[in-house]
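pls design
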């Protein structure tokens, strides 16, 4: 199975479907990532704060898969944005991941009260220039934060990774990204199991029509909208199911019906808000 790729503003390609490991306990991460690699995933999304980079690194090394076939993302945690801390943080992450470089390094949250996200972005540029990350981007940045870091540095992030699923679509961030050539990654793409997406009639109707699970339909919705997505599961059959999404296509009407799920008042949000990040 060849997963389609998306070209980033760095010139590098990212597989549009990956495997996320948020809340995968450190001791389970190696097994989960090994299974994902066996199933065919080549794009893994982790973060320093997930405390499972060692497990991810062990699985990558044991897999024997060539480095240039993998796409590995990790993220800078909020308490390391100031001064030269990002340089120390990336080296620690690389050590744990057993890698010489990551494919994508992201600042995890803007934490506006700290007012260090622009410094962090400047350091990520240096980290990219030093060859420690091929592409750089941000996560949970709203247009005001994106405008600020671009104004301060002239460098546009390759990626903004945001909470995005049919019930919370953040169209204002999508518009900014479209205008500036930034690609969007969705986190919580299935609503983290907290929002009743799978029971929604539009999702259920498409699932029945294509004889697929609601989760597969929601993953297809992301893919067909050009979003990069990495659902998380530690269950082998779900890891397989979430990857088995390239032999059917939602109709335009099905995509539109799922897009219409968003209550548009922000009430579909299941995770933290960037302005409250700490
Ligand atoms: P998700 O929307 O991928 O939901 C995961 C949950 O959905 C699982 O725990 C499971 O309960 C359920 N699930 C998965 N596959 C299923 C299936 N086939 N059928 C039924 N239920 C299924 O949520 P997530 O893990 O939060 O998001 C995905 C990834 O995004 C994370 O692992 C992480 O890599 C990233 N993330 C980033 C941030 C950030 O701030 N940048 C925040 C959260 C997550």
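designed seq:
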């Amino acid at each position: 199975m060849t997963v389609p790729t998306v070209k980033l503003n760095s010139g590098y390609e990212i597989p549009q479907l990956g495997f996320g490991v948020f809340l995968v306990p450190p001791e389970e991460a190696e097994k989960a990532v090994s299974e994902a690699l066996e199933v065919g995933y080549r794009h893994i999304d982790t973060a320093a704060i997930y405390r499972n980079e060692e497990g991810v690194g062990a699985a990558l090394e044991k897999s024997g898969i060539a480095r240039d076939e993998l796409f590995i993302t990790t993220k800078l945690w909020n308490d390391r944005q100031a001064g030269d801390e990002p340089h120390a943080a990336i080296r620690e992450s690389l050590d744990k991941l057993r890698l010489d470089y990551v494919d994508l390094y992201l600042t995890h949250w803007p934490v506006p009260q700290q007012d260090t996200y622009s410094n962090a972005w400047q350091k990520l540029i240096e980290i990219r220039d030093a060859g420690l990350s091929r592409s750089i981007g941000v996560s949970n940045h709203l247009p005001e934060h994106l405008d600020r870091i671009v104004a301060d540095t002239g460098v546009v992030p390759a990626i903004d990774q945001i909470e995005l699923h049919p019930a919370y679509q953040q169209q204002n961030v999508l518009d900014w990204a479209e205008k500036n050539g930034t690609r969007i990654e969705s986190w919580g793409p299935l609503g983290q199991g907290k929002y009743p997406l799978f029971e929604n009639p539009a999702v259920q109707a498409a699932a029945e029509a294509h004889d697929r699970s609601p989760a597969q339909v929601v993953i297809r919705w992301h893919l067909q909208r050009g979003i990069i997505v990495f659902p998380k599961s530690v269950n082998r059959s779900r890891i397989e199911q979430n990857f088995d999404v390239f032999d059917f296509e939602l109709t335009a009407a099905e995509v539109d019906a799922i897009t219409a799920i968003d209550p548009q008042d922000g009430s579909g949000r299941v995770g933290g808000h960037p302005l409250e990040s700490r």
